[in-house]
Design goal:
Largest sheet: 4 strands, antiparallel
Number of helices: 3
Radius of gyration: 18 Å
Shape: globular
Order of helices and strands: HHHEEEEEEEEEEEEEEEEEEE
CATH architecture: 6 Propeller
Helix content: 10-25%
Length: 284
């Protein structure tokens, strides 16, 4: 059973890996007021450096099968693992797991060793690697006393986790980084939100469709100049950045994930056209 069978919103991860067969390495999917920096709910120990050695990245389909099989189980039991994300250098894997009783974000080396929860005691979702592999973003909220969802970033050089800002009461499914590994984009109901992880500056773009709600996780193009996203029951849209102009490119009602080709001239889109989920390539 694949991760897609466990959690419908994690089909985005599957699209990235499936589209990787055609595109090769992919780009893209791959606010509210600021929050004072703080430590993670439990202080994580530094991430041990990975030994320097050649690494042969497996084809995407094989990598997904390995991740599904290897990460789904731990020595203490059989917990569900979803949202598997491979780091840009292929040495690390981030994933969501319910091991320990609380759904959270974990990282492990690609050989399964060193598995570690990076989200502390919080409920956490949506791990996303910065393009340079230096940081991992995710969204979390307190488990026992639910409050607002917040943006967290883990620095891979030392394992430090920092809470950066609140997204309010809106649950965020995940984010897509800009190529500068500094800004990220996420969807909050009817807004595309671009958040700068260094300056904490935020800018929101409202969708043009009246009453429209963004579905799924947006994807930033490799050059950072466009953001592709879906509006529920109103198709696939592209927003230009930073001018904010938007246009609809596909009139599909059911879309669940996107991935940009490395050159930014093609987009892989997964839709339910003709009653079946299919992968389509959009030429730009």
């Amino acid at each position: 059973m694949s991760v897609a069978d466990y959690y419908p919103r994690m089909l985005a991860s599957g699209l990235l890996l499936v589209a990787g067969v055609a595109f090769g390495p992919l780009s893209g999917c791959s606010s509210a007021g600021g929050v004072r920096p703080s430590s993670a709910p439990t202080s994580p120990s530094p991430v041990a450096p990975h030994p320097k050695q050649p690494f042969d990245l497996m084809p995407s389909s094989s990598l997904r099968q390995k991740a599904d099989k290897d990460l789904r189980t731990n020595p203490g039991g059989d917990e569900t693992t979803v949202g598997v994300r491979v780091s840009p250098d292929g040495k690390w894997v981030a994933f969501e797991s319910e091991r320990g009783g609380v759904h959270g974000v974990w990282i492990a080396r690609s050989d399964r060793s060193g598995a570690k929860r990076v989200s502390g005691t919080s409920l956490a979702v949506g791990p996303s690697w910065a393009p340079d592999g230096s940081r991992l973003a995710f969204f979390a909220r307190e488990f026992k006393r639910p409050g607002p969802w917040t943006i967290w970033v883990v620095e891979m050089r030392d394992g430090a986790a920092r809470r950066l800002a609140s997204t309010g009461g809106v649950r965020i499914e995940g984010a897509s980084w800009f190529p500068d590994s500094q800004r990220l984009c996420y969807a909050a109901e009817d807004r595309l939100v671009v958040f700068d992880t260094l300056t904490r500056a935020t800018r929101a773009l409202h969708v043009p469709a009246d009453g429209g709600r963004i579905a799924g996780i947006p994807a930033v193009s490799p050059d950072g100049g466009r953001i592709v996203f879906a509006v529920a029951d109103d198709g696939v849209w592209i927003a230009s950045w930073p001018d904010g102009r938007m246009k609809r490119v596909i009139a599909e009602r059911d879309v669940d994930a996107f991935a940009w080709a490395p050159g930014g001239r093609q987009i892989a889109v997964r839709t339910a056209r003709d009653g079946q989920w299919k992968l389509h390539i959009v030429l730009r």
